[in-house]
Amino acid sequence: MPLAPRAVTEVLAPARVRPLLGTSARLLVSRFSYGVTPTLSRQVTAKGGARAWFEWQLSPDQIADPDLVGLDQWWPGLAYSGLPAWERHASEVEPGWVLTANYQRWLLQRRMRSRRQLHEVMTEFWEHHLHVPANGEPSFVYRKAYGDAIRQHALGTFEDLLQATILHPSMLIYLNNAVSTKRHPNENLGRELLELYSVGLEGNYSESEVVDSARMLTGYRVDLFKTWKASYRTEDHYTGPLRILGFSSANTDLDGRSETVRYIKYLVHHQSTAARVAQRLCARLVSDQPSAAIVNAVAQSFRASGTDIKATLRTLVEHPDFARSVAAKVRTPVEDVVATYRVLGLQAHQPQAASDFGNAIVFLSNCMGERPFEWPRPDGPPDFADAHTSASRMLASWTAHNSLSGGYTPKSGVTYRAAESWMPLLPASVEEIIDHVARRVLARALTLSLRNAVAVRMQMSLGTRINSFSAIGPIRTAAMLAALLDSPQHMTR
Q: Mapped to the 3 state alphabet, what secondary structure does 29-96 carry?
């Protein structure tokens, strides 16, 4: 089924219109979306303001998402997991690296198109916190299903989320629990469950407690390179007393699944887990170095609500530190690609060739220094400015902005917005035109210094009067768009 058609141009109001969103509204919407567009701004207004929009977004199942209709048919191999995915890999029908690249493409398109923007943001956040690389063999055979499990619980409770992910076959494979037995317990998952996914290093656990954590998880297996079935094998489960932090278990039953669930639940509600999750949420949604005040408030809400993610997010956005965090977060390369697509009003079509936009976009992201979920370690990719502001990244972003603004590349599989459609009603001055376009691309008016910088990029003077589009043309329009996208206002969220 083809994706529902979308208009790629729109009638724009005359120059000197009011800003689309105020500063506080734009902050909230930009932190919980992949780019504020005129359509999104109208949606916020229709819902009664940014906070009402935020509450609406917290219930994604109630939001129609027509622009995703048919997207699953773009890369049909994503429907396969486990043995069928492995068989397609082994027979070179769809090698694992292709399957995972298609998963990345599918994710990018979801973020670009979905009206459930907050849900997409939080799904990405949890996939980073509970990171399983998308390009790692052999966990790739269940990687799409793993992402689906996170999506299902991304706005539920952290307890349900952690139970669903720690024991997921993709995680079991990635951190070697799939081959862990009572005689030869593998410590990887037991360690990372403590260090990364729950209490963190501040949990002050010992090496013997790491071993006991690994022993608790024995029995959960995956039949690697054969049937790929996930199962629980009582003969592989370690029995005997276990102590991890304040948790203790006699662990006498050969079937240790109920005790494993109890153990994970204990970790979920540990105060150190609340502190770690709060720190990561605030670092993602507030600032690279959030204050102890907001982290403590978010952690307290996390515990008091029974790890309810919606309640935790409400506390975060209500804290004064959130309102003070304007421009405090730099967009990652992946966020830059998605936001650029959204604000330029591009429309990708089902790809037929590797060079088509829907396929090539993942390589564009890679040129900036990041592809979705390819961080090689289990701690997830960094989300702080110093990791994403190197000279090479900035040059790559500027090159991409120029290419997409002018419709230069990718050429196929995408409809670019007509250059003339960006213009206000003419005649208008160059300054008025720049300000008009900035309100659509950046959802704000520009400072005089930035208007001057854009005019220099266009090789025009701010006061020049423009009577018809031919006086600017597509090349200067592309230069104007690229200059706006190169600005700190676009590169931060």
A: HHHCCCCCCHHHHHHHHHCCCHHHHHHHHCCHHHCCCHHHCCHHHCCHHHHCCCHHHHHHHHCCCCCH
Query: Any bridge partners for residue 248, and if so which?
Result: 243
**Residue 472 identity (one-letter amino acid):** I
Specify whether 490 is located in the same domain as 350.
yes
Give the residues of the chain that fall short of pLDDT 50. 1-17
* Single-letter code of the amino acid located at 370: E
Residue 32: CB atoms within 10 Å: 22
Predicted pLDDT of residue 3: 46
| Total of domains in the chain | 2
The reply to whether 250 falls in a domain is: no
Residue 101: its H or E element: helix 96-113
End-to-end CA, the chain: 34
pLDDT of residue 29: 98
Q: Do 390 and 304 have their domain in common? A: no
CA 475 → CA 24, 166, 418, distances in Å? 34, 52, 12
Question: Based on the domain organization, do 346 and 483 belong to the same domain?
Answer: yes
CB 327 within 8 A of CB 492: yes
Domain that holds residue 338: 1-33+330-493
